[in-house]
Design goal:
This protein has about 625 residues and is an alpha/beta fold. About 40% of the residues lie in helices and about 15% in strands. α5 (about 95-105) packs across α6 (about 120-135) and α15 crosses α16. The longest helix has 25 residues, at about 570-595.
Length: about 625
């Protein structure tokens, strides 16, 4: 028996097609497709897949690695009609929305996206900064290849800012009444809390009048069928704000609609997410939280991603205070005034105004409830000359400074601001500062000797006479020694001026930054430290607002008693209330002068001449 042609069974049929080797073709039509048609069908399948999972598209096609929370938000923006998310500083919400705009424009040819913000410059950040950053991050280089030409950062109102080869485009507009005659499929509202709600409803939202018109809608099978029409989208991004703002009402609508299963999505990403994902330094944030001048409300909104509303017992209301934040530019000290090149911004004193430097004194630093605050209040006579309109033009705060140094600071500010009076709290350590103000002070830096001041209302008080050792004084100091009744009066008086808008505060730091960035001397000539000094009055005003909103009225049978929360302060409030009250005292003198006016002067006629014929 010969075995030369013998083979084992497994080798006999190794080239044969077995039952489990043959793959079934469930789509018989593909067997008749050409190579190019099969290619286009593959592209359609991949496009469908990438539309369903845009996070995978970013990784595969763009070569950009995303954090888990970014993948989730990218998916949400792709599949929900209305998306709103709040994020703490440093989480890159504008960057993520810019990425979504690029992905949407690539995957959906002919997509039209409009980005709106309070100002065009703010909205332009998405185009001028974030998209170029994405181009640099893309390891595949596909974003640059998808864009037709260069990114246009000009404010030309007619041309889109970013145009894609497939017909999609991104355009930036400002939130104004003139931003009309636009059509878009997606509306992005950056920092939407700052946009006028009427502009949003009557102008911006009207852009979404027409849906995207893909080519398949022309095929008879899909033509004129509503179920195949794409929904337009709205994306809201911001940091939370006060509850009186329209952003909170819009947020409430989103929450209710999301819980009802509609196409709405809303979320907030606090600073803990930034720490977890390595986008923020934990120790740096801890240090910031432990700073004694931390803006509690600002931190709560900007970093904890929570809306703020004052308690029911709050004496001063957030909306009332925001209504009086109208002053664009403060009065600065001598060192900063010398750096201002636009002399229009330097505010010279006029004959019809009085300037008050109101001081709440503390000596020891390190305690959150212990700080010295010097507030400049300008009182300008009204048209009838019987009242003053108050303007809080600057606030300075310091801690842990010797009383003599504080007295020297007060005298410098008094001269820099061209003040008329000082209001000084005499409780506790205030008496020590008063004792130095009663002496001749020499300023080594400015080479100036300041003449002594004294109290104009308590000069003969026995407890103050011991400090009156000089031969000559100027009575410039109005001394106060607060009691329950006095605190009651100043609280009532300040509340009255706020409600009737007879007092104004500086605008927010964000609004001030927009104005200052229009000044070339500010942008080009100043160091970062000097720019921070120019913004400090606005920051102090925000801290003043925080203090006032947190003050709660305590139950008392006779008086209004305001109490700050544990660990918080009310130094800025006290300084403002003292100065405002003193101006009310000055108003009484204006009324008195008006009453003392000789009314007969109004009827001083010449004797008529009788002409004879």
């Amino acid at each position: 028996m010969r075995y030369e042609n013998f083979q084992v069974k497994r080798n006999k049929n190794y080239k044969a097609v077995g039952l489990y080797d043959k793959k079934a073709n469930y789509n018989k039509s593909t067997e008749k497709l050409t190579k190019s048609e099969r290619l286009m069908q593959g592209i359609a399948e991949w496009a469908s897949f990438y539309r369903a999972r845009p996070d995978i598209f970013v990784d595969d096609y763009l070569g950009i690695t995303l954090k888990p929370f970014q993948k989730i938000l990218l998916f949400v923006m792709m599949h929900y009609n209305y998306t709103m998310f709040f994020a703490s500083r440093g989480l890159g919400k504008t960057w993520l929305v810019a990425l979504y705009c690029v992905v949407r424009c690539i995957l959906y040819p002919g997509t039209k996206i409009i980005v709106a913000s309070k100002t065009r410059d703010q909205a332009m950040v998405l185009v001028s900064e974030k998209i170029p950053e994405l181009i640099n991050l893309s390891t595949t280089g596909m974003i640059q290849r998808e864009i037709d030409g260069s990114i246009r950062t000009s404010l030309n109102v007619s041309d889109p800012n970013v145009v894609f080869l497939n017909g999609s485009w991104i355009k930036v507009v400002a939130s104004t009444q003139t931003a009309r005659s636009r059509r878009a499929n997606i509306l992005v509202l950056d920092e939407f809390r700052m946009i006028d709600p009427l502009i949003y409803r009557n102008v911006l939202r009207r852009f979404l009048a027409v849906s995207r018109q893909p080519g398949y809608l022309k095929i008879e099978e899909y033509k004129n069928k509503k179920e195949y029409m794409e929904r337009n989208q709205e994306i809201f991004i911001s940091s939370p704000y006060y509850k009186y703002n329209w952003a909170y009402m819009r947020y409430s609508v989103f929450v209710k609609s999301m819980l009802q299963g509609k196409g709405y999505f809303v979320c907030g990403l606090p600073y803990q997410i930034a720490i977890k994902e390595g986008l923020a330094n934990k120790q740096q944030l801890i240090d910031e939280m432990q700073e004694e001048d931390l803006d509690f409300i600002g931190w709560r909104m900007e970093m904890e991603c929570l809306f703020f509303g004052e308690s029911e017992k709050a004496y001063f209301k957030t909306e009332e205070l925001n209504n009086i934040k109208k002053i664009n530019f403060p009065i600065y000290g001598k060192e900063l005034q010398d750096k201002i090149k636009n002399k229009v911004l330097i505010q010279k004193k006029t004959p019809n105004e009085v300037r008050i430097l109101s001081c709440d004194i503390a000596l020891l630093g390190g305690d959150q409830n212990d700080a010295s605050v010097f507030t400049l209040i300008v009182g300008k006579k009204t048209a009838n000359g019987t009242k003053y309109k108050r303007y809080v033009k600057n606030i300075t705060a310091c801690q842990g400074i010797h009383p003599e140094v504080q007295a020297l600071m007060i005298r410098r500010l008094f001269d820099d601001y061209d003040c008329d009076y000082i209001v000084l709290d005499m409780r506790g350590n205030g008496i020590s500062v008063y004792s130095y103000l009663c002496k001749k002070l020499y300023d080594n830096e400015r080479k100036v000797e300041y003449i002594p001041f004294c109290s104009l209302n308590e000069f003969s008080d026995p407890k103050l006479e011991a400090y009156h050792l000089e031969e000559e004084y100027e009575q410039r100091i109005y001394t106060v020694s607060p009691t329950e009744e006095f605190n009651h009066d100043i609280a009532l008086d300040l509340k009255d001026k706020i409600v009737n808008q007879r007092i104004e505060l500086l605008i927010s730091k964000e609004d001030a930054m927009e104005l200052l960035m229009q000044e070339q001397w500010f942008v080009k000539n100043l160091s970062p430290e000097e720019k921070a000094d120019f913004l400090m009055p606005y920051i102090q005003t925000n801290l003043l607002q925080t203090e006032m909103v947190l003050l709660e009225r305590q139950d008392h049978p006779r008086y209004i008693k305001l109490k700050e929360p544990p660990g918080k302060r009310k130094d800025r409030y006290s300084s403002l209330a003292y100065g405002n009250y003193f101006i009310s005292i000055l108003e009484k003198d204006l009324v008195k002068k008006e009453k003392d006016f000789d009314i007969s002067l109004l009827f001083n006629f010449k004797k008529p001449q009788i002409r004879k014929r």
